[in-house]
């Protein structure tokens, strides 16, 4: 059985947008934080990983959102590393309210990146063994994302504080670029229920990115498709499913 | 004696920039978080304040930085509300390393804002009494900031996620705009030692801001002066003193 780590968190006003609910970047922040603390406690913190010249990167997230956490709400975050194969490690996170209701479930795929070569490295047993996750042979497929027909895009310049200590644009920033293009009216009328996002290629300081988007109707709500591109290079792709608040 | 609140924090990679040290917005985030938890524990959380139609806003910060916290470092954050007068509440924060050395000292000035009228409100005894801070008559003067001679500026559009649950641009975003104009080379060569920032007027969604800046030499380092403006309106002003890393 994989090791499970649980902690509580009080949702701050600055983790919330005008809807007074937590932003997706803030949710991913507290989730990643929980996994970092678990790693430290299992003796597999950054210092251990860096011995090998490696750092963790997230290659995809799926978020299933029952209800977004609210300003000042006390929530619990639990996480465990579930499975791994030669190149990828699979981890789940759950956010619950105080009554034990599930608010958000996250499936994340992690890889180890060689810091100098900027390339994925194979998973080392001595790094993952303490998490007691299951070794599997197959590579899990990320859900197929819709192809985009629209040419709509907004451009963004990478800012200094968009770059994290991994020397590339932090994952959370991609989500800000994707959300921002949808506009105030949309983002205060609709709430995200399902977010599928894949990170294909890192973005560096000084690059200009285009945030492409397309809005389509679904039976009960809306779907938005997103691509972050630097010129011809696809850096990230996402589908988000929304319902009226 | 004012109530003191202390907590520990593990510095995450995403709270750090390329220098692998904590960003000023991330430092202010953990500080504000500590004061929020203290307020909850004293029965003076957001729900209590909102009964009066009020919300806390920060009107200025002074940060004295001995050393910026590093990736993965375990730090302690302590805070107490020190004094208050008719319109302002004064609070201090300290970040310490595990050996007890002071890393950062922060002096913050808070006000209560009427959420509907968007105006400052006088301080209510029943809100501040549990903190056991000292009532004073005088208004403390914020250090005088240098006037700017330069016309250098960069323009920024307010993004959806720049707006927090107080319905205006979060304080941390002003600092991102001020830092970003200094460029990668400067920000990886110099480290901030003293930050003085005042918030004069809130910025709303849809506004375009200009981040004005000027660089001057001091005896042992550099000084940068900053103004955030929307047209003729001055929204925020800051001076930052830097030394070579």
Question: Could you explain the architecture of this structure?
Answer:
The structure is a homodimer of 245-residue chains. The first copy, chain A, is an alpha+beta fold and 245 residues long. Helix content of chain A is 18%, strand content 42%. Chain A is built from five helices and twelve strands. In chain A, strands 1, 2, 3, 4, 5, 6, 7, 8, 9, 10, 11 and 12 form a twelve-stranded mixed sheet that branches. The longest helix of chain A is centred in the first third of the chain and has 18 residues, at 24-41. The model of chain A has no long low-confidence stretch (mean pLDDT 95).
CA-atom Rg of chain A in angstroms: 18 Å
The protein's oligomeric status is homodimer
Biggest beta sheet attributes of chain A: 12 strands, mixed
Beginning-to-end CA distance, first to last residue of chain A: 38 Å
**How much of the residues of chain A is beta strand, in percent?**
35-45%
Shape of chain A: globular
In percent, how helical is the residue content of chain A? 10-25%
């Amino acid at each position: 059985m994989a090791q499970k780590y649980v902690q509580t968190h009080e949702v701050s006003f600055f983790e919330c947008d005008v809807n007074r609910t937590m932003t997706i970047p803030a949710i991913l922040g507290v989730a990643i934080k929980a996994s970092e603390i678990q790693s430290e406690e299992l003796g597999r913190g950054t210092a251990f990983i860096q011995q090998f010249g490696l750092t963790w990167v997230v290659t995809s997230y799926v978020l299933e959102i029952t209800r977004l956490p609210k300003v000042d709400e006390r929530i619990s975050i639990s996480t465990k590393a579930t499975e791994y194969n030669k190149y990828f490690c699979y981890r789940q996170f759950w956010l619950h309210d105080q009554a034990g209701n599930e608010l958000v479930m996250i499936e994340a795929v992690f890889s180890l990146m060689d810091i100098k070569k900027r390339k994925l490295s194979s998973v080392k047993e001595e790094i993952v063994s303490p998490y007691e996750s299951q070794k599997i042979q197959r590579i899990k497929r990320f859900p197929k994302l819709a192809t985009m027909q629209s040419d709509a895009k907004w451009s963004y310049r990478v800012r200094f504080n968009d770059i994290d200590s991994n020397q590339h644009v932090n994952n959370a920033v991609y989500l800000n670029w994707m959300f921002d293009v949808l506009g105030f009216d949309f983002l205060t009328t609709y709430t995200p229920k399902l977010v599928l996002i894949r990170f294909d290629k890192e973005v560096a300081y000084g690059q200009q990115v285009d945030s492409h988007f397309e809005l389509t109707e679904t039976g009960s709500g809306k779907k938005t498709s997103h691509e972050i591109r630097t010129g011809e290079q696809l850096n990230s792709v996402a589908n988000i499913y929304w319902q009226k608040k």
